[in-house]
Amino acid sequence: MPVAARKPENMDFESALAELEGLVGQLEQGELSLEQALKSFERGVQLVRAGQQRLSQAEQQVKVLMSDGDTLADFATGEESQP
């Protein structure tokens, strides 16, 4: 798949991370032209930003779920919290 074939914001987290790891590997080998390296770096930045956004959204979802004390189990004891 070409480097910019899919928008990072439309990719799932795992796919974006896998592509980012591939880009890092290519950059570390040092065999890309300057132009290719800059394009790869730019794509990597886009992937990182999209990944950070997804992680932030997931963190917010966890916070919302954790704030609902009526149905969540107490992880330390394994018992459900009482209203």
TrEMBL record:
<dbReference type="InterPro" id="IPR003761">
    <property type="entry name" value="Exonuc_VII_S"/>
</dbReference>
<keyword id="KW-0378">Hydrolase</keyword>
<comment type="similarity">
    <text>Belongs to the XseB family.</text>
</comment>
<comment type="subunit">
    <text>Heterooligomer composed of large and small subunits.</text>
</comment>
<keyword id="KW-0540">Nuclease</keyword>
<dbReference type="Pfam" id="PF02609">
    <property type="entry name" value="Exonuc_VII_S"/>
</dbReference>
<dbReference type="GO" id="GO:0008855">
    <property type="term" value="F:exodeoxyribonuclease VII activity"/>
</dbReference>
<comment type="function">
    <text>Bidirectionally degrades single-stranded DNA into large acid-insoluble oligonucleotides, which are then degraded further into small acid-soluble oligonucleotides.</text>
</comment>
<dbReference type="GO" id="GO:0006308">
    <property type="term" value="P:DNA catabolic process"/>
</dbReference>
<dbReference type="InterPro" id="IPR037004">
    <property type="entry name" value="Exonuc_VII_ssu_sf"/>
</dbReference>
<keyword id="KW-0269">Exonuclease</keyword>
<dbReference type="GO" id="GO:0009318">
    <property type="term" value="C:exodeoxyribonuclease VII complex"/>
</dbReference>
<dbReference type="GO" id="GO:0005829">
    <property type="term" value="C:cytosol"/>
</dbReference>
<protein>
    <recommendedName>
        <fullName>Exodeoxyribonuclease 7 small subunit</fullName>
        <ecNumber>3.1.11.6</ecNumber>
    </recommendedName>
</protein>
<keyword id="KW-0963">Cytoplasm</keyword>
